[in-house]
Amino acid sequence: MTEIKIFDTTLRDGEQSPGVNLNKEEKLEIAKQLERLGVDVIEAGFPASSEGDFQAVKLIADTIKNSTVTALARTKKNDIDRAYEALKNTANPRIHIFLATSPIHREYKLKMDKETVVKTSVDMVSYAKTMFNEVEWSAEDASRTELDFLAEIIESVIDAGATIINLPDTVGYSTPEEYGQMFKYVKENVPNIDQAILSTHCHNDLGLAVSNSIAGIENGAEQIEVSINGIGERAGNASLEELAVLLHIRNDVYGYQTNLVLNEIKRTSDVVSKLTGMAVQANKAVIGRNAYAHEAGIHQDGMLKNSETYEIISPALVGVSSEESNTLFLGKHSGRHAFKDKVKSFGIELTTDELSTAFNNFKELTDHKKEVTDDDIYAILMEIKTDASNIDRYTLENFRINYEQDGQTRAYIEVSHPNGEKTSNEVIGKGSVEVLYQAIQGVISEQTNLLDYQTSSVGGGKDALAESRVQIKINDKRYPGRGTSQDVLEASANAYFNAINRYLMSEDKVTQTTGASI
Ligand SMILES: CC(=O)SCCNC(=O)CCNC(=O)[C@H](O)C(C)(C)COP(=O)(O)OP(=O)(O)OC[C@H]1O[C@@H](n2cnc3c(N)ncnc32)[C@H](O)[C@@H]1OP(=O)(O)O
Ligand SMILES: CC(C)C(=O)C(=O)O
Ligand SMILES: [Mg+2]
């Protein structure tokens, strides 16, 4: 099986992402994690670009033992000297020299003709070769370069000592077919090409970085330049994790192998995201928060029956733990099978009727709340398990709170009584919870005394459930009550009725109906 070398440029091209600025300690932490991940080459930085980057590359070169460490240099003696100074103590140093070859870069940026581009590249590769065994040379903007000129300059730099030839799609312009054809052309038209390894370096401006990298290796490249989380200049580079997992999962199609330790992928992604401050989008392939989450009821049912119905990558393959993978995400589109599975995971037993009620309550909540958390579901289940639903009870049917202009608050409630009758009541006073509770007291026949009242939020987010807890005293006995709702006042009313219903349950009471009949 052909081995594909992984050249990681997170610390060089990745750091060129706008807004990213890593200090040397942060770069070292990422480099150590890249070494654990098993990347073959770590591009640690661009030593001539600043003293800080020089120091970071040096620290990494002095520390990393199991990966080749490389650094970028322009075709300038000073850049090459700085790279050598930074890299000289590493076990296996490599320099990465680049010069643009395309007409637009030659004419407008470099102001060099073809001959000068060839001569400068050859001179600097020869110069670097006096210090480094491994010399990588990149034809910046290769994919927009005339193919015959590309072949000519590649032959010259290989003669000068380049051992790795990188052909970047610098501006992410190529299609996979064009990019693959460029490698094929170079393979067929550069006489000394067998003395060098070909490499891809793809940018994601048109979302083709991964596909183009594959086209490159299918046409002779044996190294791919990639970055963690796909970070890099503009829309970023080909993502390491996507290519690594693609080559693994579809080995039947491609038949390539890498030295990567796949289950280090998630940790590496987390470290890079944290230290660069670049969040990973939720639906990002392989490492996004949603990459292993299934919300649709039909998918969840399939997953419960056989995970391969909807999952081609096992989260564990890339080091995503079962807690992180959030496999069955309960939300608006979930069905009974997944809900039942969640209830089971809490160790809670429900009767068929209770399950039905809990599922309906859950579905109702999903219409109001974007993300239903485990805490939300637990609150629903607890309410059902501790509810006096098997007895005749008070139920809040409707309520309104109005804030009057004179600072007074008006509470209106409609209540079903244990005997099935419905009454209403209206109270004006100060404070919304207070008038609400006064209105409730006005429709029930029991004499209650409120001892304690607390409200807090359950679950996360600004749309979290409110949970209210009360203690009431009836005939010298205390009764706790709990109520949940998205609305704080409704949760408060539910808690009060829950306490009264507990009293009814314990005393087996039949109560008098009060309040205006409706
Ligand atoms: C495709 C890529 O990702 S290439 C890598 C890009 N990365 C970076 O640029 C990050 C680090 N860069 C830097 O810190 C700075 O640009 C430096 C220190 C390298 C140079 O800074 P300055 O000397 O102020 O030059 P500046 O960046 O404005 O312009 C670049 C110069 O390098 C020249 N140049 C560009 N590429 C090369 C090259 N491969 N070889 C030689 N010269 C080059 C440009 O033509 C320009 O030269 P000019 O000043 O004679 O016009
Ligand atoms: C320096 C080179 C390799 C580069 O990053 C590019 O061309 O995109
Ligand atoms: Mg690049």
UniProtKB/TrEMBL annotation:
Mn(2+) binds at residues 13, 201, 203, 237. GO terms for molecular function: 2-isopropylmalate synthase activity; acetyl-CoA C-acetyltransferase activity; manganese ion binding. Its EC number is 2.3.3.13. One of its GO terms (biological process) is L-leucine biosynthetic process. Residues 4-266 form the Pyruvate carboxyltransferase domain. Keywords: Amino-acid biosynthesis, Branched-chain amino acid biosynthesis, Cytoplasm, Leucine biosynthesis, Manganese, Metal-binding, Transferase. It catalyses: 3-methyl-2-oxobutanoate + acetyl-CoA + H2O = (2S)-2-isopropylmalate + CoA + H(+). Pfam families: HCS_D2, HMGL-like, LeuA_dimer. It comes from the Bacteria. Pathway: Amino-acid biosynthesis; L-leucine biosynthesis; L-leucine from 3-methyl-2-oxobutanoate: step 1/4. Residues 395-518 are annotated as: Regulatory domain. SMART domains: LeuA_dimer (SM00917). Gene3D superfamilies: 1.10.238.260, 3.30.160.270, Aldolase class I. Belongs to the alpha-IPM synthase/homocitrate synthase family. LeuA type 1 subfamily. Homodimer. This is 2-isopropylmalate synthase. The gene is leuA.
